[in-house]
């Protein structure tokens, strides 16, 4: 089974937060309000969304920063995904 | 009797949540805020809705993920349906 | 006396909820937040409403499902009506 | 002195609620949230209002149903009027 | 010194509420939520305001009814003015 | 160092409130919700702002009345400025 | 790794607040609601954002004043960045 997002929606999969920094310091895991890194799994077709033309600018495989509280969590075949609107993606990490 | 949705509305019927995963683990049923899987029963004609052109992208029989709190529950002939706007449907499950 | 709705408004009259299901079970009447079935009594002319073109898609005599909290109750000659906007009508029951 | 409403505004004068129904039952007067019947006293010119073209559809003398909480009460020469936007008028009573 | 309002703003000066009615009854002054009568002192140029074309329809000297809570009080040379948007003016009193 | 405002923003500098009126009465300083007089220090270029064309109508040196709670205070080289949108400026004082 | 902002977003890096003024006075650090100075690190492409054409007016290296509560904090390789929309940038400091 796979998720095919509609409109300007994007399916992402959260990356494990690195809990040890380069310099070897262990970071606390409780920082609840931080944005998250995720990998793009599937991208909607874009087009007219709520009366506005949306062009999709991310693609599957991109690593992205997103607004944590904007998405909807979905569980499918024991995998957890998050479905966000493209406008909730803040930046691509290269 | 059948429901004929207006505008960009979609009639869906909730699928029973699978309570046993592939690996045989029984999942709790109380997770109230999770999005839901549903099957599309009927689809409105789309067109101009609130001043915006809406093209319907789901069809009867599609399995979809929707935002649980967005719909309106309707009971008809002992069947329970949910009427949502197409924009409350996040993704199609294939 | 009769009500002539303006713009995209629709005058409806609530149908008595069937309190006995096909299988003979008596349903409780207290379910306050459920959408309601109603019959359309009069339909506004549509046209430009709040800067948007609205085409009326229901007609007098239609049985409809509407969002219960959206309308305004009106009493006229001992009859009770509800005036809703067409966008508060979710589906036609055929 | 008279009130000349601007834009899409309408000056109305509340009709006394009939407190005795046809069948002779005295109705309570305390039902605060009910919509009200009123007579149209003066009608603004319509035209561009908040960036949208508004065509006036009521005229002086019309009996109308309006949303009670939408208007502004005005007292002029011992008369009490209510100034509403035309969109707060739900229906004409004929 | 004088106030030159920008955009669709209008400078008005509140008229003393008449505290004695025609029939000689003294009215209480505490009715806080009533709309107010005022005289127009200066009128902005109108034109494009917040992306919408606004045509000014009041002029200096007009007596108007306005929504009391919408304006901003300004004191200049011991005079008190109120600056409102034209859309907060409900009607002209002629 | 100087502040160069973007879009429809205007940098203003609050004028000391005159605490003695013409007639010699000392005014209290605690009136917190009053609009303020300020002098315009720098003006953004205007143009398309949030999808709307904005034409700047104030210029450096103008004395203006503004909505006190709308701006953002900025400290630069021991000077305190306020950055507001032009639409928060109510009138020019001439 | 680097951050490539989408749409009208801008990646900025907060400048250390100068805690000693020219005149040698030590400023308190607790002033939580003040806007902040930051340096622009990366700028999105602009273009159609939420149905509106946005032209980017800041560039990497600019020192800017921004609305403190508007951005999202991001940590990457031990550096802390803030991602804001260009409209949250109030002025450039030259």
UniProtKB/TrEMBL annotation, chains A, B, C, D, E, F, G:
UniProt keyword annotation of Zinc present: no
Pfam families (alphabetical): Cpn10
The protein's assembly and partners: Heptamer of 7 subunits arranged in a ring. Interacts with the chaperonin GroEL.
Record-level Gene Ontology MF annotations: ATP binding; metal ion binding; protein folding chaperone; protein-folding chaperone binding; unfolded protein binding
Primary localisation category: cytoplasm
SUPFAM superfamilies in UniProt: GroES-like (SSF50129)
Protein family per UniProt: Belongs to the GroES chaperonin family.
Protein name: Co-chaperonin GroES
Gene3D superfamilies: GroES chaperonin
Record's subcellular location: Cytoplasm
Keywords for this protein: Chaperone, Cytoplasm
Organism of derivation: Vallitalea longa
Main function: Together with the chaperonin GroEL, plays an essential role in assisting protein folding. The GroEL-GroES system forms a nano-cage that allows encapsulation of the non-native substrate proteins and provides a physical environment optimized to promote and accelerate protein folding. GroES binds to the apical surface of the GroEL ring, thereby capping the opening of the GroEL channel.
CDD domains xref list: cpn10
Domain of life: Bacteria
Hydrolase as UniProt keyword: no
InterPro entries: Chaperonin_GroES (IPR020818), Chaperonin_GroES_sf (IPR037124), Chaprnonin_Cpn10_CS (IPR018369), GroES-like_sf (IPR011032)
Coiled coil: none
Gene Ontology CC terms, in alphabetical order: cytoplasm
């Amino acid at each position: 089974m796979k998720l095919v997002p509609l409109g300007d929606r994007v399916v992402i999969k959260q990356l494990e937060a690195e809990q040890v920094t380069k310099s070897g310091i262990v970071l606390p895991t409780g920082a609840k309000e931080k944005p998250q890194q995720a990998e793009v799994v599937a991208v909607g077709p874009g087009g007219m969304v709520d009366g506005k033309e949306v062009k999709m600018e991310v693609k599957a495989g991109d690593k992205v920063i997103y607004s944590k509280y904007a998405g909807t969590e979905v569980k499918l075949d024991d995998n957890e995904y998050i479905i966000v609107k493209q406008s909730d993606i803040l930046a691509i990490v290269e």
